[in-house]
Write a structure and sequence with these properties.
about 240 residues, about 80% helix, mainly alpha
Length: about 240
């Protein structure tokens, strides 16, 4: 667990310590906050009554941040020629994988929390009172769903990052994959005749968390250092 936290701190320190990286993250977060936290709530302060719309604004959209950041996890290291140094550290492969994944999810949750807080302020300013549907329980459900969905997209983006040499290509592929997953999820819910409301949202959020956790376990099981360093190369020979 200590190694996971070490990798997490390293990833966040590099993000906020590198001028180009932090600008990219800030621009994406600013767009998220401006759209979901200001424009929509000011124009439609009653949006908080619509659980599906709120889940999209503060649960699904922030997951794109996680996918974009996770797509840089290994492709970016390879492009910056720091991958060999990272893989040569004594940190366990599992800790390396989970630490980078945790950093991506943390970034998405931060974006979701800022957007949700700003949205609550904007809706209150537009309506003149706090929206009745805006409760701590509803906010907790949205953040739970955001965690699960961000984990899901981040795991898949990390898998892309292991296999793509260029960070920009990995990020573009991860963004498109996030859109495809969102469309697929909407189709599944429609086929199952599940309407997102404040009663069904806890079950959907729980399903996202379970699916995200399952992908973490699967991704961790398939994580191999030699595959990241040389995706097309053969596995190393067995010891002895």
């Amino acid at each position: 667990m200590t190694d996971v936290v070490t990798v997490l701190r390293k990833e966040l320190a590099e993000l906020f310590g590198d001028r180009h990286s932090v600008y990219g993250a800030m621009i994406q977060t600013a767009i998220l906050v401006a759209l979901c936290g200001v424009v929509v709530p000011l124009d439609r302060p009653t949006v908080w009554r619509d659980a599906g719309a709120v889940a999209m604004l503060y649960g699904v959209f922030p997951a794109v941040l996680a996918a974009t950041f996770a797509a840089d996890a290994f492709a970016g290291e390879r492009e910056r020629r720091t991958l060999e140094t990272v893989l040569a550290t004594p940190i366990a492969a599992r800790s390396l994988f989970l630490g980078k994944l945790a950093a991506a999810v943390a970034l998405a949750l931060l974006g979701a929390l800022v957007a949700m807080t700003t949205g609550a302020i904007s809706a209150t300013a537009a309506a003149g009172a706090l929206p009745p549907a805006l409760t701590a329980r509803h906010a907790a459900m949205i953040l739970l769903g955001a965690t699960g969905y961000a984990t899901l997209t981040a795991v898949l983006a990390t898998q892309i990052s292991m296999r793509v040499a260029v960070a920009r290509t990995a990020q573009q592929a991860a963004s498109m994959l996030s859109i495809a997953i969102t469309a697929g999820l909407a189709l599944v819910l429609r086929r199952l005749h599940v309407d997102l409301d404040w009663d069904t949202l806890p079950r959907v959020a729980g399903a996202m968390v379970a699916l995200g956790a399952a992908l973490v376990v699967g991704g961790d099981g398939g994580f191999r250092r030699h595959r990241i360093f040389d995706p097309d190369g053969p596995p190393p020979p067995p010891p002895g």
